Amino acid sequence: MDAKGPLSGYRVVELGQLLAGPFAGCMLGYFGAEVIKIESPNGGDPIRNWRQMKDGTSLWWYSLARNKKSVTIDLKTTAGIELVKQLINTADIVIENFRPGVVENWGIGPDEFKQSNPKLVYARISGYGQTGPYASKPGFASVCEGISGFRYVNGHPGQAPVRPNLSIGDTISGIHAALGICLALLEQKHSGKGQVVDVALYESMFNLMEAVVPEYDGANVIRQPSGSTVTGIVPTNTYRCLDGKYVVIGGNGDSIFQRLMAAAGYPEMACDPALSSNAGRVEHEASIDKALCAWCAENDSVSILAILDKNRVPGGPIYNVEDMVNDEHFKARGLFENVEINGEALKIPAILPKLSDTPGATRWAGPKLGSHTHDVLGDLLGLSSQQLTQLAQDGVIKKPN
Fold it and tell me: For residue 103, is it within any domain?
């Protein structure tokens, strides 16, 4: 696709691996930025070999590394560090997600470029941030989701906290990094200076915690896990239907609740003054949920959802990926894109949000390891074919296939 995205003209050097940093780079690349991903010549980003594989490469890789240029450079060599320094001096943005202090030890931390590239926006993603007593601790998403408070409110009372079967802390942090980078670029337009964007995984998840802090400070209430409900909002729950499928019902608006209960066959509850406000419904949550559980158990999910739609009550199914791929609304909204991998089509998800005039796009799938090394180092740094050959022989970069 030839359309220019809103970040067209910006160059990103991505030093991170695995998920948080690369997802930020994926977002920037989707909206037009040139993303140069630095990978080790010895295997590259571990994501290349994670989860479901096909023809020797992770299917995840083709989505996460879309639109990126793979450049192999060994950061454990002096020559490799010098190459990265030169690339960063041509860049507008750097993304790194190593433990704090690592890039400084390599001599490629943000202070290194204040004079040579003062407009540089340098995004840093770590478990606990660049400062504070926990900064040096290893910060995997699973651990940071726990300390952020997010895991505490997930699950059922009296049981072990649960996690979604996703690395949500990494992805949310990647989104925060992309947002921070764009904010820094906007400020750069005024000051002409770049800055450091400091993203912590635990803080990104902390940012999702809504009212838990003021509720604790102002009312001494510690929000607890509540299964498939939300504390203090009734009714909003997930119910099992006659066909074994689950539906989500959000009937917590006052007039919505009246329509819901009347449609479900409980007109007396619809008209009960004690249930006319959310505060009253919270007091009678058990009886409301019992009634809705019984209604759903006696009807299949298709019938339940049809009744909810007819009565303008928010409700929907619990989808798995097969359901999503086959859903006409998902298709109409363009949530799936096709790339070609070894002559076969592969469906990957679109990256959101949607922009009306300068939309993002997948221009190519995640590339083979080092496939752009010679082009990038030749074009941007002016290295000759002889110099590139020598670097490959020295193990600084990967030999071309």
Answer: yes
